[in-house]
From TrEMBL:
InterPro entries from the UniProt entry: MetI-like, MetI-like_sf
CDD domains found in the cross-reference section: TM_PBP2 (cd06261)
Keywords: Cell membrane, Membrane, Transmembrane, Transmembrane helix, Transport
Gene Ontology CC, one term: plasma membrane
Gene3D superfamilies, A to Z: MetI-like
Cellular location(s): Cell membrane
Protein name: Binding-protein-dependent transport systems inner membrane component
The UniProt record lists the keyword Acetylation: no
Bilayer disposition of the protein: Multi-pass membrane protein
Organism: Ktedonobacter racemifer DSM 44963
One GO biological process term: transmembrane transport
Family per record: Belongs to the binding-protein-dependent transport system permease family.
Length: 277
């Protein structure tokens, strides 16, 4: 009886997971369908739910309408720079908060956590004024410098460091004469790789998808990031949704690749760490 109920429970859970998977995947499927059809096909009733043959034509229209390649390289530059800087500074700060004592440590950490509560949109005006005073408007600096350290990144790596890095390992490194930075580089970083993998994916995707702040600080079309450039595909009076969805698809494909590559590395690091310890 118990075994029978267990099978039914497992069946219900698997059906629920399958439904959740279908619901999660459908928006991506619909985006591809729209990108491979014409706008008139999208407006059909009932809607066309199968792939069309207009993908290459829509891609050509996107490449003619915006400077896609330049925007793509701009986005790679910004997102890559932000990700590398966040991984370095947040891992250094998180490790320090977790394993070292210094005056005001707890107070600074409470203030850091408090900044996570503040909505980012509330600081847009102040941030724009600061960037303007620094004469950074119209450059990539406002997109990189303010985001190269995040409160979430420090919090995440601090919490991970507390349990993943043994104090005895740090004490042994100190006895060998290693300084703070050498301990961080040779002891902390190898242990933090799984956490860095997650934070890297999270940061890269967030920077890649950022739209509002680049729209505000970038006034030169040659500097537009991909999200801003794709948004310009929307017409004032008429919108070619097939072209917009094609641009969105082209902007999404690199994220999917990064996600799967990063997730694979993330899982591999966790497995390696489990075997090591």
């Amino acid at each position: 009886m118990i075994q029978h109920e267990s099978r039914w429970l497992r069946f219900i859970v698997e059906v629920a997971l399958l439904l959740g998977l279908i619901i999660s995947i459908f928006p991506f499927y619909w985006m591809i369908v729209m990108a491979t059809n014409t706008t008139s096909d999208i407006y059909r009733v009932p809607p066309k739910l199968i792939f069309g043959s207009q993908l290459l034509t829509n891609i050509a229209h996107v490449l003619q309408s915006i400077d896609f390649y330049r925007s793509f390289l701009n986005t790679v530059l910004v997102a890559g720079s932000v990700t590398l800087l966040v991984l370095f500074f947040c891992s250094l700060a998180g490790f320090t908060f977790a394993k070292f004592e210094f005056p005001g440590k707890n107070t600074l950490f409470v203030i850091l956590i408090g900044t996570m509560i503040l909505p980012s949109a509330g600081s847009l005006v102040a941030s724009f004024v600061i960037m303007s005073d620094l004469h950074w408007i119209g450059t990539f600096l406002p997109l990189i410098v303010p985001t190269m350290v995040t409160a979430f990144g420090i919090f995440w790596l601090r919490q991970y460091s507390l349990g993943a890095i043994p104090n005895e390992l740090i004490d042994a490194a100190k006895i060998d004469g290693a300084g703070h930075f050498r301990i961080y580089w040779n002891v902390a970083l190898p242990t933090l790789r799984p956490a860095l993998g997650f934070l890297g994916i999270f940061t890269f995707i967030g920077s890649w998808n950022d739209y509002l702040w680049p729209l505000i600080v970038l006034n030169d079309p040659k500097l537009f990031t991909l999200q801003v450039a794709v948004a310009n595909l929307n017409g004032v009076y008429n919108t070619d949704y097939s072209m917009v969805m094609t641009g969105t698809l082209l902007a999404t494909i690199p994220l999917i690749i990064i996600f799967f590559l990063g997730t694979r590395q993330f899982i591999a690091n966790i497995s390696a760490g489990a075997i090591k310890f």
